[in-house]
Write a structure and sequence with these properties.
Number of helices: 10
Order of helices and strands: HHHHHHHHHH
Largest sheet: none
Oligomer: single chain
Structural class: mainly alpha
Shape: elongated
Radius of gyration: 18 Å
Length: 196
Amino acid sequence: LTIEARQQKVLMARLQLVRGNAKWLFAEPDMANELAQAALKVFQEQLDDTGCADAWWLLAWIENARGDAAARDEYLQLGATRARKISDWVRVDIMEAELARADAFRDVAAAKKRWGSHFSEAINHLPPAVAACVTDYLSCSASLSCDYGKSTALGMQTYDAALATGQIRRAIFSATNIGDDFNSLNDHHAALEWMQ
């Protein structure tokens, strides 16, 4: 294939991935999976590491929606490994933050032990997309440890960073979690405001 033909194939695969993401957001996991798998095949054929990492990211969230945590984690690990290969630290950090968050829901003490030195609460130096994911993990970890004040503060950072980077779904979940934390702190008025 010519360079132009290869670029065209990759571009079409990118569009499939965007369509797959929309299908996932509209709760059509089978169609989302079909589009993501087709895109992944092209990215693998064309040796497009970034495309592969992004396809595995979408496949991870499709499996999450289906309730298959093991497949989700496998896809996130594949994506992080491929992103690390090309030194794409934004993608690596985002995928590893999601793995850490998943670990926290399974066993918060073990997650803190595994990821404690990996993610810092000094997130000001992080790109906003990464900050949204890292603070999401840290907020969940604090909440699961019954440190609701810390969880609320981190959750607000997640909410702001998620909105700033177009992660609407994450912002919605974060607002709900902040509301739950305020309920746990017996601040029901603030909880209602966040839930609304």
